[in-house]
Amino acid sequence: xxxxxxxxxxxxxxxxxxxxxxxxxxxxxxxxxxxxxxxxxxxxxxxxxxxxxxxxxxxxxxxxxxxxxxxxxxxxxxxxxxxxxxxxxxxxxxxxxxxxxxxxxxxxxxxxx
Amino acid sequence: xxxxxxxxxxxxxxxxxxxxxxxxxxxxxxxxxxxxxxxxxxxxxxxxxxxxxxxxxxxxxxxxxxxxxxxxxxxxxxxxxxxxxxxxxxxxxxxxxxxxxxxxxxxxxxxx
Lengths: 113, 112
Known about the structure:
Oligomer: heterodimer
Largest sheet of chain B: 6 strands, mixed
Distance between the termini of chain B: 40 Å
Order of helices and strands of chain A: EEEEEEEEEEE
Shape of chain A: globular
Number of helices of chain A: 0
Radius of gyration of chain A: 13 Å
Helix content of chain B: under 10%
Structural class of chain A: mainly beta
């Protein structure tokens, strides 16, 4: 079966702009989590969506938001981009019931200039 | 909060050698997951551990869930060049969600 698909793979944006990233989970998975990966901070949890509702949220400012659609696809939006937002953004999907295994996409590499 | 301390930070080994890395936490985890990440790719799940004391193998990889539930280790036997990458341990912050905490990673280099 198809894995987790993230688009686009690469993005270059200017400070102050906004950006939308997309994640299509594995078929049948209803939970999508988003992570930010940087060399300095490692992998950090942004938020998780399950059945179109944000279920958990990490410690990121309100400029980071997301949503999930009825087909479980999810989007993440970052407004008023800052240089420090440059990172690899990863999404992971799972069935979302109890503890189960999360599978990651290849990520979107965002560069803010 | 729940922090995962992963060691060593990096390893340089010769092909054929065995590798061992571990992860510890000051808090109890109910699940330990081990991932491998290669350059330009997302982390790939290697092994999932769900019970204290559990020992699980996946080919040349073996991982154990510590009895205290505060640690886990991953062993790779007879390493090969394609084992190169960054290995992460991870555990969910709470029992019933997918908010995971990750270790800082162990960067493995295998010399042929």
